Amino acid sequence: MTSTIANKARPMPPGIYVPVVSLYKATKRQEVDYDASYKLFSHLIRGGLDGLVLAGTNAEAVLLSSEERKELVKIARKAAVDIGRPNFPIVAGISGQSTNESIRLAEDALSAGADFGLLLPPNYWAKAVTKDALLGFYRDVADETTLPIVIYSFPAMCNGVDMNSDILSELAKHPNIVGVKLTCGNAGKVTRLTQEYKHEQFAVYAGSSDWLLPCLIGGGGGCVTGIANVFPKSVSRLYALWNESKIKESQELQGLVAQAEKACKEGIAPTKYAVGYFAGSAAGIVDPKTFWPRKPYLPVDGVKAAWVEKVMQSLVQIEQSLPDAV
Question: Is 181 tagged catalytic?
Answer without folding.
Answer: yes
